[in-house]
Amino acid sequence: MTSVLILLLLALGAYLVAVLEAWIASGHLSLATPMLAGIALLGRESIVPRKPDRIFFEVGPVLLLISALLAAVVVPLTPNLIITDLATGALFINAALVYVLVALLMAGWGPDGAYAMVGGWRFLGQLIAYAMLIVMPITAVAMRAESLLTTQIVVSQAGLWNIVYQPVGFALFFVAAMALAFLPPFDLPTATGELAGGVEAEYSGVRLAVLRLGRLVLIITLAAATVVFYLGGWQGPWLPPWAWSALKILAVTATMLLAGRAMPRIREADLLAWCWKLGIPLALLNIFLVGVLVLVFP
Amino acid sequence: MSAQMFFIGFFGLAAVWFGIVVFRTFSMVRSALALLFSQTALGAMFLSMQAEFLGVLQIMMMATEMSIMAIFMVMFMMDPGGLGEMDMTHQKRLSLIAGLVSFVGAVAVAVFADWGPAASVVPDAAQQTVDLGLELLGRSMLIFETAGITILTAMIAATAVAIQSVTRSNEHGH
Amino acid sequence: MIVGARQGTMTRLRRLVSVSMAREFSTFLIPGPDIARAHGLDIAAAGIQLSASPRHASALLVIGAVPPAMLKAAVVVYAQMMRPRAIFVLGAEDISPLPSADIATGLSQQDLIEGMHQLRTLFAEGAFRPDMSDFDAPVLQTRIEYTCPMHPEVVQSEPGSCPKCGMTLMPRQAQATTGHNHTNHKEVDATANEQTVSSHDHKHHHSMAHDAPTKYTCPMHPEVVQSEPGSCPKCGMTLVPREALATQTHELADMDHGSMDHGAMAFMSMIDVTQDLPRSIDGLPMEWIEVPFGPFFPGLPGGLLLMLTLDGDTVAASDAHTLIENNDFPSGEPMDIASFAEHLTGMDPLVPVSYRLLACRALENAAQVDVFADIARARIGAQERERIASHLGWLALFGRQTGFDWLMRRAASLQLKVQNADFQQVVALRPEITVLMKRLHWTPLLKSRTVGIGRLVSDAKLRGPVARASGICEDARSKDKIYEMLGFTSAVGQGGDAFSRLHVRLEEIFHSLALIEAAGAIALPVPATIGNESGKGEAVVESPRGMARLELTLENGRVSAAQLDTPSTHHLTLIDQLTEQQELADALLAVGSLDLSPWEIQQ
Fold it and tell me: What is the pTM of this model?
């Protein structure tokens, strides 16, 4: 029962992300836009390129959706509303989200098109940049909670949210989450100006709808993960827990979507250089600092 | 009990099947991703055996590693799409012999080694994670730390060997 | 009913789908949003969503008179659009070989808005149709040719095996620039082979001595020898007769590497097997693919076809040309003054005022006629207003290319405001432009994105902001007395990369604003009355992209010959140097920073 409820909430969340994105892109707020766009997309022709790698072409978008859904399985919205509270929940989120890369590789290699291929392999370079920056802040968060259970992580923030306790970790995780969801300025695989849509370019009809849905679910899952790890999950004064969760997740989503509009796309070489030369030392410093804090203030 | 055995068997067979696909397909990328899913099946096997941390870790690490292997295969092998249908396998007899020997050795180890008494109760996953952490920083600290440092040294050495001397002004443009 | 409707009868579900499609669909612009803005059309205000890929677009919007080569490219774009698809033409009559337009109107913002409204109605009613015919055009016919993956220069029209190595030939779509590609490969082949022939020649002769001519052998494993044809037991390649190999010393020498001793199991490393493939600077033998960027690529000027040979995501070679044939001056009958000026104005819709001014000046120079100072100042006002509009248009294109959404929208809306504004309105825009500049100054990642990209060495071919950004203080306006009177200063930068070009253009916007305020009036250039003069005249104008020069001959008040020299023609030749061995995104940014106008390129 809780599973069905959570999936419905996830669908609602994805819908709201689509509404937000359309609002930010065009300036008009229209609640019906994603639904109309979805129906229109399903009604259009759906073609297969001339010489695709058929398995990859079909599986790519589906794997993106599945990986985002699997990551959402361990995210708690309220103390009781979680599909499965895995003992290694924090690590499982990362494990599921790695398959976003595999999905994009398939979506890039499958259609046998130059733009898609370059977009897919570029995302691998992006993964090498952000992968450590996702895992190491999670390590520091788990250190404070002394557990990998996501519910325990939220409970451990009862006194002080992690965003204040480990701000460096938050900054790194936020940037890495945007890179994982390939949101601007990290939208290298689907760059409009450089690859005319990149990985998305060769998809149409139902498969494109699945790809876009997967991306929306990915964004909301990452926002939910950020809220759980750093913003205290469902905790807060007067409002009920689910309201706090919803508000915080929407706020994080809006921030992620707005941040990219204000800057040009990052160069891949720069992304790799900064993540490895600046990001990883900062992440190690974060772990060290959190370790000291955990020992000094038990 | 039987559900667990079923899943272990299922994922084990899936791992073997994906492993066979690695060599049967002509496409380099399919080969790499088939190996990836073979490892994922192994990770799922670990999960069915209630070794949760190990399973999740296996699933996570192997996806990243096999994808990087995929791009190296695309870079170094010709015809990564496999449309030329060229047989890329070499030294078939030697590898067959090596495979058989390893298989016999692994089965021998599995059957004849003394694994100790079978545990009747498996600690729950949270307790397993705590125990694993204590073990890593307790009895096995030396092993893991030296392994970690060795891997780090190998990474740095490989990068240093591969890098061409690039001065700062050369980084952008020519 | 739309011509490109989807097959099917209108059921209730399909009606729902049609209504949704009418409300939400994307449009693909031909030749591009830059031309749309140049014609004064506000795409965003008409509620049009642009799509980057034709696959995601439902409507094709053809704006203005489009040259035939571009129409052929538009056919390819149309064929890639998913049905239901519609065509909306603004201000063009004949668009064959595209199918007939579903909606055809004139070229104005009002027409655009009404047309979009009609288009939505058409989609809601006619998205599905029971009787549908497929769309085909001659340009869509593709020829399949067969090539060997290891020897790209081997090309045949039927399937078979490669005469050099025996591998099965792979099908591939015939490419227009095949010649260029193969020459590249041949050159690299030759150099790679020369190194190996000398060291292994003796080995090859040694093995030749022992064998009778009718034996079959494997090119990769020379120790495998059979009396009848078949496939190699070690690698599966088709065996090739011995004598066929004798004439190809260099290939065999390459593949002989692995078999150092006869009879032992040969292990072929990939390095040996891929000897023949072209290599880039880093030594990796990856497959080179030719990818077209353009002519309607988002972020590049519409009409520019940039063919890049990609080695992974690095550019190995480039080939750029424009789809707009520039019929400068129909030779034959002399043209009268007014039509000549109109012809030159219409040549480049992106900068009509500059070329109009150029025509007027050249005519006045030929006829030895002077203009009054206040007319000259008003002309300068118009010229500088166009410079501001052109640079804002380039900023919008730059924003689209780098995914900088805010800049794209802001610069586009400012360009539309400036373009046809009168003097008061232009002066009133100063605070908005200042805000834009300030925000650009504080944009994170902008500097790192552009610094060092597209570095050019100082060259005589450079003109305009591209030259000034490299430190060359060349500006046709500095020699003009009236400009001097208005207090003109040239904007010069150092560095010669995309970052300096961006800053030079930003500075020029401010300088142009100051010049307009000093000039005091804006009026489009009108050719002075000339009468029946004869003579030769020449003039230069500093167009927003660089100096343009016109030389013409007047005969009895009519123009009989004219020669035009445009900046984009020279800048096109720089693309090779800019994109070589650059990562794809950097290469595209470098090309974009040149601010080419495909309409004025003469080839």
Answer: 0.86
